[in-house]
Specification:
The protein has helices spanning 16-29, 53-63, 81-94, 109-115, 122-141, 182-189, 200-216, 239-251, 267-277, and strands at 3-8, 33-36, 68-71, 74-75, 101-104, 146-149, 154-158, 172-175, 192-196, 225-231, 256-260. It has 281 residues and is of the alpha/beta class. The relative contact order is 0.14.
């Protein structure tokens, strides 16, 4: 059965009370995982409560027992790749190997301007992203000290200690639909590729292209898990439609669905959705 997970927007009013209640419910209902965005603000006002990503996932690592979890995604325009690699290894160890490190290039101009981070143009973002991916991969997976001399990140004989308990550290998820830039990076570095808001036929086409890129990198298509994040507008009367859509993406190769749950306080609605989505047949 295809895994079903939940994603929430951490900048959209997420507080400790809401996070704890939601995480407890997600685990109890049988969802496979819980992901969250990594933003200071939304792209437009009004500004709402925004629970910091790494701290919130540290709570999740220590207070859940079954679900996998991670950022969807952490932008390397804001997150320092060296510190993020260290935090990722610690979160994975603390949770007993349930952490997934979701990474992205960054895109939201308002939060970068407000908090003083340099977003840059698209070529800058992608060059920084590529550097960060290489450095994170090496820090997590190389047993020898890492010297890295990039334009955006540098290290001199850096070694993460203790070494990650999981060989190679947590899996890397790369999110995005860009055929020219994102998919080639996913083919080179990712353990998981996450498509975002794509119709099923687009998902199938992008997944096929990823297969070709993986072969060009000397990897196999099965080396990278395929996930898809979709917005969720659920009415309990639509159970059959939910199952139909899940079946269509599953047939197109999706290994996991990550549904965006915006109603942070609607736990009863989440329970109704679980009854529909987790009994796929």
């Amino acid at each position: 059965m295809t895994a079903i997970s939940i994603q929430v927007e951490g900048q959209n009013g997420l507080t400790w009370a809401r996070w704890i209640a939601l995480a407890t419910e997600v685990e109890a209902l049988g969802f496979a995982g819980l992901f969250r965005s990594d933003h200071f603000t939304n792209a437009h006002e009004p500004d709402l409560d925004s629970l910091e990503m790494v701290v919130s996932l540290a709570w999740l690592a220590a207070n859940t027992r079954r679900i996998h979890f991670g950022p969807l995604v952490a932008p390397l325009s804001v997150r320092d790749s060296r510190m993020l690699a260290r935090q990722a290894a610690a979160l994975d160890d603390l949770s007993g190997g349930r952490f997934i490190l979701g990474l992205g290039a960054g895109w939201q101009e308002r939060e970068h301007t407000t908090f003083g981070y340099d977003l840059g143009d698209i070529p800058t973002r992608m060059a920084r992203f590529a550097e960060g991916l290489e450095l994170i991969t090496r820090l997590l997976r190389d047993e020898e000290p890492v010297t890295f001399d990039g334009e955006y990140f540098q290290t001199r004989g850096a070694r993460l200690l203790p070494r990650p308990e999981r060989p190679g550290g947590p899996p890397l998820l790369i999110g995005g639909n860009g055929a020219k830039r994102t998919l080639p990076l996913a083919a080179r570095y990712a353990d998981i590729w996450n498509a975002v808001y794509v119709p099923v036929e687009n998902f199938r086409a992008l997944s096929t292209q990823l297969d070709e890129l993986l072969r060009a990198e000397g990897r196999k298509p099965e080396d990278v898990q395929r996930t898809v994040m979709l917005p969720l507008f659920f009415d309990p009367r639509d159970e059959d439609e939910v199952r139909r859509q899940i079946a269509a993406y599953r047939e197109a190769g999706a290994d996991e669905f990550i549904f965006q749950w915006l109603a942070l306080d609607d736990l009863e609605g989440l329970r109704a959705f679980a009854r529909a989505a987790l009994t796929q047949g």
